[in-house]
Amino acid sequence: MVAELLQIFHHYAYEAAAFLAGADAGVRVLVYLILILAGAKLGAELFERIGQPAVLGELIAGVILGNLTLINGHWDFFEPLRATVLTDHAAIGIDMLAKIGIILLLFEVGLESSVSDMRRVGISSFLVATIGVIVPFVLGYFVSTLFVTKVPPEILAVSPGFSVHNIHIFIGATLCATSVGITARVFKDMGRIQMPEARIVLGAAVIDDVLGLIILATVSAMISSAETGAGLSFFEIAKLTLIAIGFLAGALIVGTYLVPRLTKIAAKFRTQGLMLITAVLICFGLSALASEAGLAPIVGAFAAGLILEEIHFKEFGPNAGIRSLIQPVTTIFVPIFFVLMGIQVRLESFVMPSIIGISAGLILAAIIGKQACGLFVREKGVDRMTIGLGMIPRGEVGLIFASIGKGLGVVNDELFSAVVIMVIVTTFVTPPLLKWSVARAEKRSRQMKESDL
Amino acid sequence: MVAELLQIFHHYAYEAAAFLAGADAGVRVLVYLILILAGAKLGAELFERIGQPAVLGELIAGVILGNLTLINGHWDFFEPLRATVLTDHAAIGIDMLAKIGIILLLFEVGLESSVSDMRRVGISSFLVATIGVIVPFVLGYFVSTLFVTKVPPEILAVSPGFSVHNIHIFIGATLCATSVGITARVFKDMGRIQMPEARIVLGAAVIDDVLGLIILATVSAMISSAETGAGLSFFEIAKLTLIAIGFLAGALIVGTYLVPRLTKIAAKFRTQGLMLITAVLICFGLSALASEAGLAPIVGAFAAGLILEEIHFKEFGPNAGIRSLIQPVTTIFVPIFFVLMGIQVRLESFVMPSIIGISAGLILAAIIGKQACGLFVREKGVDRMTIGLGMIPRGEVGLIFASIGKGLGVVNDELFSAVVIMVIVTTFVTPPLLKWSVARAEKRSRQMKESDL
Fold first, then answer.
1. ipTM
2. From the list A96, A271, A276, which residue is nearest B328 (CB)?
3. What are the backbone dihedrals phi and psi of residue A436, each rounded to the nearest 5 degrees, phi first?
4. What pTM does this model have?
5. A332 touches chain B (CB under 8 A)
């Protein structure tokens, strides 16, 4: 009976898969979008209910959708999205939507912080951020040297002429950036967003994002120039770092001057939707400029968000709110990126001991690397462990690193899978660890006060 | 001096074009989007200021962008978007965004009407709509037989094995549907949205849209089956018409039952953005279903919009408004479609006398065809000429017909250009004609009242 039912199910699963695979690209884009968005929201809901961040649910929904083919070989509907070089029109469309999604996400993150916020975060945040970038990078590089050399060369060698050294650097770089969103969310959910530890960690996470983007710019440029065969001297690395910092600083200075003038002109237009279009054009414009300057487009998108403030749009009327206008757009676009990252994880990679080794090593490096942060806090009475734990989650920036590395040919499918698993695990362990640590710190501080009395 | 400046300008224009053509697909998508959205808004603004509909400005902005190469052979940046078969990744991405744009537009149009609205429009609207579909179709077919046969076969023959008969049918079909949006906008701008002529025309335009979608479904299916060599009997055409009507009716009946239950479940979710995602999923789901039933995806999107009412989302809270959430999304997506339609117009086609002939013939057929409508109004004291003139503008549905026909291989680049020019001209002439006609009718009715006294 069960066997018969399974066979009937198997038959229909096969039929459905064959039917979908045969549909034209326009229909498959719609079906991809339906499955991706429905999966994202189901995953987000499930994870929020068990006290985990929504983004984790979206990633894992993607992992499940992409790996359905392991359960039933016919469910390979998502295979075109997992190809190293995309050829299917529907897959190219979805990939484009995901790329626009991540640009809009970084724009939104930028909108939520401002240049003056960045100036306000204290010296502690700056130290925490810097240490939190350097130590994981070094540990990641070390893990990569330990394990990557054990991966069979025919699996590792994705692009000819690349030195293994570049892989180590890229893997190290994926470990740098703390995800602002996830940390903020956990502190907010606990009603502890105002405690000094939260302030320091959130400040650090913002600086962290910027440092991460600079590292990404430098590392990508290094690898692109390595591709052409030219070695990179220390001088050249310093030059690239200066370009990255120069772009951000230049965009902020020129932008702060130009944007109010631009929005003032735009406000004189009568046609509808101009506030949103102006904001999106500034975002896309800086993204394209960043890309042409050899940086990742998201660096420009983040800078665009930093420059734009609600005040620039006050001429559009009293109810003008650029964040509330951009939100419906990101609601649709952003989950596509996270689910697609999950879809591209190849669970079958984890039968290789070396890949399991790298994943475990990366997770440990990611967690331990950030624990050094707490040691450099100067304020007294601050719980150092809470700060170290708060810095653990890696999110969008790590994933962007991995996907850019995949595009450059330094990160192959297996390493990409290992990085995504690292992002998933670090994000997964943070909320319970942080809740425990905050409770412990508050209990201790109560006990100290009692013993003082 | 002038010659030198021109040469310098020419030099930089060449450099810019070469630079853009060499950029990678990710950057080019951003640059395409920037040029398309900026062009759309500049065009919309300009046309609104001279009292013309914004959509016309978007179409003409597209025509200018796409035909820049005629001014300067090096400005061929938009050529990848004009290819009959798209191969460039950036072009595939933009095409996908435009397709999603038109689906979301029809969804929004559907949201603005409801099933009960459709029932309320009177018998006059129904007669006006039916006549306004049949007469232009017949005239368009006739124009096509007159001119298409004069087009050199090597230009006309886009797909082998197609009978010219199919081209006539498709050209006739592009003339059927009045654009609700443009007519409504003109009456609204004049403060005459409540006059009986406006009510009848707007009611007719809504029915017209549905009739147009049914015709599109039938015609596309006819041509697809003609492709396989099978002739279509009258019986089969009737069957296809019934499928189209059946899909719409079925979607409305099943949807009206299912949607409130679906939104009730969705309202129980805690994760963010679920109202918008639910609406978008219903829209994409019905679009994919329509497509699989052999209809155009927009038929499903329109049905989804008709089914969804604000009341279904009341459980999401008092401020829930699905239209205000979908608007920022359509603000970005929809202009991409109209500008892309303009970009694909090849102005160089208009050196061929036969193409000029077809365009002029189509424009005349489009305008004269709708003048028959006024004759069938039953209400007394209604100005028949105002009704005929109000039905003139063709818009999105005509363009969708043309672009689907292009995809099917019945409408070649030259015929496509002729149809877009027809849409532009009919939209362009309506506002001044309608303003004149309304003023004339009101003056006459005042004179009649005075002579009664």
1. 0.82
2. A276
3. -60, -45
4. 0.84
5. yes
